[in-house]
Amino acid sequence: MPVLNVAFVGSENLARSIAKKGDVRDIESYVFKEEKNGITQIISLLRPLKHPEKIRPLLSVLNVAKVGIIEVSKVDSSLGEICVAFGCAGIKKGLVIINAETGGWVDPEQVKMIIQQSGLEDWELCENVPDEHEIREKLFNFMDEVKENNEALIIPVDQYFNVKGVGLVAIGYVQSGSVSKHDNIQVLPVGENGIVRSLQVMDDDVEIAVSGDRVGLAIRNLREEALHRGCMVTHVDSEALVKNISSTFEIKKAPFQKRELEIGDVIHAAVDMQFIVGRVSNKESTNFTVEWEVPLWTRLIDSPPIIITQLDATPMRIIGTTIF
Predict the structure, then answer these.
(1) Which fold has domain 241-322?
(2) CB 241 within 8 A of CB 297
(3) Residue 177 dihedral angles phi and psi, to the nearest 5°
(4) Architecture of domain 155-235
(5) Which of 148, 151, 182, 276 could lock 211 by a disulfide, CB 3.0 to 4.6 Å apart?
């Protein structure tokens, strides 16, 4: 079942018109299924909650999504941060939908300038709210253009629990690669191995889960203590991930960001569902060395951009991006 994960920043009303509401955590999910040519295709809207108060749910959604929808009810600093976040995450396809507050007005030219300066110049700007059928059709067209990552298996775990009659279950998004029943997997950072007993995607039992799927892995021969939120699942001996305790890198500064990092500054790195705190220990020209509070795992091949944020920075918490 092909799945298109869509980062959705907008109202619950618009989300409900497009898809059926599902799970609610710090991220709401909305799912729409449609069969085309005998194949069930799925649109999964991921709506971060508590923004702008908290930025982590937004960045977690951007770690997963391939396209985006931004509903604009007014132009403010939050809109700028949202657009910059999408641009820094490298999300090249999406819709910006103007839907002004009752009695208000949003200047389309001002919105167009913001999205272009944020790196979203290829996004489609809708000056009026399209009906739900048109929005879905646009998203299905995006699905045809998006390439999934078929490199080594990487699943960041965000939930885990024991299920009676099933055993230990770990849940997360397949960030790259695929996983099948009976695969030998490894959990990092503990380095313990287990065997996939069964898989579920969208509450259906499946034989294989691929990049983009939110999967539940029933695992045998693994201690529950090996799992925690933020641990990573890979295939045994794949060497897909690199453990970073200290990193030296150059930052590509985000649009509209004027703040300069200095030695002693505390930052956060967001990548593959991780949100890791670190402190700048050295600065030489445009290169920074950061000591991470806990290990930051990065991909050996085809790494996505790592979004660097500083939570006390105003009005823009996103400092920029890097890859290492």
Answers:
(1) Elongation Factor Tu (Ef-tu); domain 3 (2.40.30)
(2) yes
(3) 75, -155
(4) Beta Barrel (2.40)
(5) 148
